[in-house]
């Protein structure tokens, strides 16, 4: 098993996998890491669906469009979940407030599900497995994905995670330097210097994309991310969430 230091500092997104199943023992460790995730209030406002059926993975691949969905050994979908607390609250005769219809409630569910994904990713990586988080599991076809997974109301897919035996070791992707991420006591107030550092980082990513092993691009960081923001504006996530039993306008 890899050390915590190596697990966290050498993490890479792995998109190509061997045709080999992840062992049951390894998956049980991943499940237990998920179960031990810290959550808001210990409310555990999430659930995880582990997809291994090839037919279901193919259907998800057709919706999500990323090949690692169908080639991985396990595709985990992390779901914010207010269904379970509603079920027991009603059974106990307790009033169940519409916390899921508040911005805080949605944030809590997203945070819990995201922390659970990081627990799974960290454990899997420490075991020598490869993982790739997939946000498109949330955005591209939320209604179709929810129907395929049989999700009840008050649940919503937050993210996916492909897990498998790695078939590649891609170059380590450059992240922002520490001074652009970690601030002390207050937010940085030197915008001109910060902008210079962001420009330098932008060039670092452009060079990485141009010289990395495998597929090469001319993408920089800022233009690529802003392009995703423009695309994401059309996903209609609010309407999808409202259909799933979440309405943050209330």
Order of helices and strands: HHEHHEHHEHHEHHH
The unreliable regions are none
The chain-level mean pLDDT equals 96
Q: What percent of residues adopt helix (DSSP H or I)?
A: 40-55%
Radius of gyration: 20 Å
Q: Could you give the order of strands across the largest sheet?
A: 1-2-4-3
How many beta-strand segments? 4
End-to-end CA span: 47 Å
Largest sheet: 4 strands, antiparallel
Instruction: Decide which structural class fits the backbone.
Output: alpha+beta
Share of residues in strands:
5-15%
How would you portray this structure in words?
The chain is α+β, with helices and mostly antiparallel strands and 250 residues long. It contains 11 helices and 4 strands, in the order ααβααβααβααβααα. The protein has helices spanning 4-9, 24-35, 54-64, 68-71, 83-91, 103-126, 136-139, 142-149, 191-211, 222-232, 237-243, and strands at residues 46-51, 74-81, 130-134, 155-164. Strands 1-2-4-3 form a 4-stranded antiparallel sheet, with helices on both faces. Helix 2 (24-35) packs antiparallel against helix 6 (103-126). The N and C termini lie far apart (47 Å). The model has no long low-confidence stretch (mean pLDDT 96).
